[in-house]
Amino acid sequence: MTTPPPAVEMRGITKRFGSLVANDRVDFTLDRGQIHALLGENGAGKTTLMRILYGLYHADAGDISVGGQSAVIRSPRDAIALRIGMVTQHFALVPPLTVTENVVLGHNQGVRLKLEDAHRRVSEAAERYGVDVQPRALVKDLSVGERQRVEILKALYRDARVLILDEPTAVLVPQEVEQLFDALRRLRDDGLSVVFISHKLREVMSITDRVTVLRGGQLAGSVQTSETTPAEMARMMVGRTTFGMPSLDEASSTQPAARAVLRLDGVTAVDNKGLPALKGITLDVYGGEIMGLAGVSGNGQSELAQVLEGTRLCTTGTITVAGQDVSGADPDRIMKAGVGRIPEDRHASVVPEMTVAQNMALEHLGEYTSNGSLNRRQMRAHAEKLIAEYQIKARPDDRIRTLSGGNMQKVILARVMERNPKVIIVSQPTRGLDIGATEYVRSRLLEQRQRGAAILLISEDLDEILELSDRVAVIYEGEIQGILPRTEADPERLGLLMAGAKDSPQWA
Ligand SMILES: Nc1ncnc2c1ncn2[C@@H]1O[C@H](COP(=O)(O)OP(=O)(O)OP(=O)(O)O)[C@@H](O)[C@H]1O
Ligand SMILES: [Mg+2]
User: Fold this and answer.
1) β strands within 47-192, DSSP E
2) Which residue's C-alpha comes closest to atom 12 of ligand 1?
């Protein structure tokens, strides 16, 4: 009996960007009916390798075969013809159109499909693959998780037999992760092959059959998931198994300042649809304190962060920063009052086509301008200093869009922290980061706490909240359900509050 050829075989793939070797003679074999994890630190070359397979980048050397046939993949169109689909984190959907329109878009060329037929076909496909979407819904009204399902369905509708998912779970809440995994298992049983990129070893252990690890652009190893452990995977990724993951216990404790640096008093705001999103938030954050904000996503966290950044109007209530009233102030004034922000979507807080140096100076261009002209030399020197200080793997003139997730996050941290802000609003600071970068970001946040900054840490990662926060506030449907000191905050209590259980007197 002959074994069927692998779904995909990549041999000796090399890809250079200038002097940087992003993939260095990488071999990768994806079997039929396999869920295959691609692991590695930020910048290890995972996305690059998969962009080559999907025809978005062209390898400088190496061969690819698909289903045993040698293949030349010049563009995504070639990849789709070879029945390869890719879902990235930056969805390529058209928001004002329906799910159906997005799924069939560009596919039924020449064939004018009647809308009713199209809806029916899309809902049949959704049913067949166990992907839960509403064909008639407008994409702009969908959550991130739902949009991801539309992207997956779009690939499946094009008959993909190989599905590449680049950090699909980074944007999902735990329930959605389970739904995704159910769908993936079903697809695997159907003979599809899946490449699954993730930084979460727990997920890799639970869903994948095989693991391939990249390190510094080279293949570090490839093993069956059942024959490895998280510690072994970490060793392959970074060369060590122990991580001194920084947490509050190790940071020497500070005395929170007697004065609340950030004060919210009865703050209300509406969401994009005009519905109440914040219903009277009252919260004090002291200097030298990390206040964790826990909650299931969609309970007002994003709106709160936006209000505090000045990008969303606070309809009633007051916000003060070190005694200064900033309610209703614009982002510039809020920044000048001493608020630094590390937003949830790091791609949205940089200008992708600008260089690292420009992005680092972005919010303070005035300081590099004299007589109306920009002092580029000074801007570069400033960038070089921050790059060295924050150990960023990049050069001042690199376009920021070419940086890996971890390095982009470091640029944003550097930009905020060098100003020694009085208040830091930080959302999902370690999402999509590898273990080393997570360790780094956490220790920088603790440093800022030590320095005396008042930090509001918004995170869906409960472990992260528990490990870093002096106090934890729980938000539910736009209201603070309760505030627990670190000694009383445990997952069960927080979980109850996050689910909307009212503060029991015992914890009040
Ligand atoms: N278009 C590009 N131009 C220049 N350099 C690039 C480009 N794309 C990627 N790189 C560089 O190639 C290296 C590998 O990047 P890649 O995005 O493949 O890493 P990754 O393993 O996916 O990391 P992450 O986990 O952060 O997503 C990085 O050093 C990155 O800066
Ligand atoms: Mg990547």
Assistant:
1) 61-66, 69-71, 84-87, 162-166
2) 22
Predicted confidence at residue 113, as pLDDT, reads 64
CATH of the domain at 437: 3.40.50.300
Could you tell me the distance, in angstroms and rounded to a whole number, from the CA of residue 39 to the centre of ligand 2? 10
Task: Give me the residue label for tokens 């609340």.
Answer: 260
Instruction: Please tell me whether residues 288 and 154 are part of one structural domain.
Output: no
- Dump pLDDT digits (tens) for 333-355: 999 999 999 988 888 788 888 99
CB atoms within 10 A of CB 71: 19
From 46, 89, 433, mutation site for ligand 1 pocket: most ligand atoms within 8 A of C-beta: 46
Q: Considering only residues 242 and 126, tell me which one the structure prediction assigns the higher pLDDT.
A: 126
Taking each continuous run of H as one helix and of E as one strand, the counts in the chain are: 16, 22
- What is the number of the ligand 1 atom nearest to the C-alpha of 49? 18
Residue with tokens 């990129």: 197
Whole-model pTM?
A: 0.75
Domains: count for the chain:
2
pLDDT at 404 (0 to 100): 84
- On average, the pLDDT of the chain sits at 88
**Do 67 and 142 have their domain in common?**
yes
CA distances from 33 to 29, 177, 267 (A): 12, 20, 52
247-251: list long-range contacts, CB under 8 Å, 24+ apart: 247/442, 247/467, 247/468, 248/290, 248/446, 248/467, 248/468, 248/469, 248/470, 248/486, 251/446, 251/449, 251/450
The parent domain of residue 281 ranges over: 260-338+421-507
Q: For ligand 1, what atom is nearest to the CA of residue 18?
A: 4
Q: Are residues 38 and 122 in the same domain?
A: yes
